[in-house]
Write a structure and sequence with these properties.
single chain, 7-stranded mixed β-sheet, 7 helices, 7 strands
Length: 202
């Protein structure tokens, strides 16, 4: 069973970010299941955790709901991460969540990146902001991300173009997830203890 977590940081309801997240989630699940890989899917919304994220930044301690979100993400085999774009970068809520996420949570995790924005001018947010951040967090970033502007949700022809991009990204990501297999979660506490013991010669 592959544990797929889709993280959406849309700020409004209804949210085009959540809409794109749902389309990617459905497309990836379809690709994996057609390859004979059973999937357990979870959607993680950051909007209800906004105050908890800010409190964790100020106090240094996560609340129980935020701990649950960390655990959900850490237990995943693969993650789809979708954010709205503001001023050519990801949203503050999205970045703040990853600022308080424990180190190595996403280590060796296949991640599909996606973003929404008002115009196509923000589309480089995928390569200039999301891909570097997830690479820094030691995730394995899928080669093809998806950006959707407001007009992609409008006309039928634009919607078809977005559907094609979603399908292409899902095919790539499903291949990546299948190749990586079930993720073995690192135990950083044990690794630090082993390092200390090696230094002490015990």
């Amino acid at each position: 069973m592959t544990n797929l977590v889709t993280l959406s940081s849309g700020l409004r309801r209804p949210s085009s970010t959540r809409l794109l997240a749902d389309r990617l989630d459905a497309a990836v699940r379809a690709e994996l299941e057609s390859a004979g890989v059973p999937v357990e899917a979870t959607v993680l919304e950051l909007r209800p955790l906004g105050h908890d994220i800010m409190d964790a930044m100020l106090a240094g301690f996560p609340s129980e709901p935020l701990e649950d979100a960390f655990e959900t993400l850490g237990a995943a085999d693969a993650v789809i991460a979708v954010t709205p774009a503001f001023n050519a970068s990801f949203s503050g809520l999205f970045k703040s969540f990853f600022d308080v996420l424990p180190e190595e949570t996403l280590s060796d995790m296949p991640v599909l990146i996606a973003a929404t924005g008002g115009t196509e001018r923000h589309s480089l947010v995928l390569e200039h902001a999301l891909r570097p951040m997830f690479s820094y967090l030691h995730a394995i970033v899928s080669p093809r991300g998806v950006y959707a502007a407001t007009e992609d949700f409008g006309t039928a022809s634009a919607g078809s173009a977005l559907a094609d991009r979603v399908t292409a990204a899902a095919v790539d990501f499903a291949r990546l997830v299948t190749s990586c297999g079930q993720r073995v979660r690192r135990d950083t506490d044990d690794e630090e203890l082993a390092g200390m013991r090696a230094l002490l010669g015990t």
